[in-house]
Amino acid sequence: MTNAMKKKESSAAAVVSFEGVAADLAGAGVVLGQTFGARALVVNRKAIACLNGDEMAFKLGRDSPGPPWRSPQPSGPPPCTAGKSIGRSNE
Fold first, then answer.
1. CB neighbour list of residue 76: distance below 8 Å, 6 or more residues apart
2. Cα angle, residue 40 at apex, residues 7 and 48 outer, rounded to 5°
């Protein structure tokens, strides 16, 4: 298995932060679940975000503008995830 395929372990701080995001979004119907063996935020049985190591990735919709450095109308398929490191500080 290559490094890209290995599941990263999440720190306790990342798990607490991820669960906090789930709690903050509970009013919108978001619940904790799993996708491909990773912790996930789920709405109507569909994963919208997952935790991999200390990073959280979000699924973006078809009409999402994507990152600001991309052109407004990319020639390829729309972006589907964006990652954000959580649970660790760079002190």
1. none
2. 120
Question: Model confidence over 1-22: pLDDT tens digits?
Answer: 555 557 788 999 999 999 999 9
Provide the edge-to-edge strand list for the sheet that holds 46-52.
Answer: 31-35, 38-43, 46-52, 55-59, 81-85
C-alpha 55/C-alpha 63 separation (Å) is 24
Here the tokens at position 68 are: 């600001």
56 in Cβ contact with 49 (< 8 Å):
yes
Is 0.70 surpassed by the pTM of this model?
no
Domain ranges of the chain: 32-65+77-91
Task: Encode pLDDT of 40-86 as tens digits.
Answer: 999 999 999 999 999 998 888 777 776 665 555 555 555 544 455 55
Calculate Rg over the CA atoms of the chain.
Answer: 14
Single-letter amino acid, residue 79: P
